[in-house]
Amino acid sequence: MSFKGFQKSVIRAPQQFKQKFNIGEHTKDPVYIDSERRFAELETETKKLHDESRKYFDAINGMLAHQIEFSKAMTEIYKPISGRVSDPDSLVAHGNIEGIRACEEYEAVVKDLQDTLAPELEMIESRVIRPANELMDVIKVIRKTAVKREHKKLDYDRHRATLKKLQDKKEKTAKDEKATWKAENEVEQSTQEFNYFNDLLKDELPKLFALEREFIQPLFQSFYYMQLNIFYTLHEKMQHCDIGYFDLTADLEEAFQAKRGDVQEQAEKLSIVKFKTSGMKKPPKYAKPGALEGPKPQHLLTAGPSSTPEAATSPKPWQRANEGEEHPPPPYSTVPVTASSHPAINPKSSSLAAAVAAKSKPPPPPKPKPSRLSGVPQAVETVTALYDYSAQAEGDLSFRAGDVIEIVTRTPNDNEWWTGKLNGKRGQFPGNYVKSNS
Question: How far apart are CA 397 and CA 433, in angstroms?
Fold first, then answer.
């Protein structure tokens, strides 16, 4: 839209609003209103005829082309898979010879049908689609004229309303007289423009409707009979399509089972088949080392010495960057812990762990952490936390260094789990994280 057209649309906007809500006086021509309704119907029918005929034309051509490609694909499937490039007989079909021949015969039938239907499809293109497209171009021009006529009507009604408003004034000034004279000229000019387009459409649209009866309606009938010819041609060709490889009289499911044979069982025996249809449980795709050995034993709270020197020298998660700080021992430890490395560790436990690790046979699987720890509770015994500890499992007790914990149950070994109470919360914690206050 040009800038001038935009200005006109802004000026006409109030009058369009009044016309939409039926405010004020509006010009109405019953003859043109009836012609406009018939023209809208013609426009809709022509567009529908053009679109549907084009879809039908593309559908028939697409169906035949897809059938040919389907035959070629089935031929490739029936051919054997050979990777012997140096073999001169590698391209010789040693597979399903009958199936390949049947696919080639079907492809020839479809190509013959495509050649037979080519004149009918060309007739649809030349006698339906192309004329409908040309008629749509004519309708677009008429629609532009109708839109222009609507704009002139808005200008005509707008100038008439302005003139009437000026004429109804009882006391007129010189400025009002000048405005009235200008409004009369605008009304006269808008009247001529509106009448020109209005009379033009009223005269020409009936002629178009007369031509419609001679063009559009026979066009619909021709398209109907063209479709009948295509349908009967397809029916006759496919009805007499006799390929011995396919038994069209047999039941579909029974014929499929007979053709399939034991192909399903043979395919399921292949190791590359992902899905099984026989209901048997499929073995794991990739067997992990030790997958059939059962669950691995849990680590002891006081494990023996590491089997590799790297494990003894590698940094641990609980170690900190500053070497001067005191590091808390791990609550779940798999590395050797000695009395020299930490004063809170019992030396008896370290020697016992070293003796167990020195044996040639692996240690027995440890028992899970007991939910109830044995021992005689001490009513008033308390301990002080040496390090911060965050709960690692449900039922653990979290605390910070310096917190005083009331002992509920404990064991003689500091490297085992004790039960305590802090701030009204009860839970388990490692005994080597605290020191006794007694």
Answer: 12
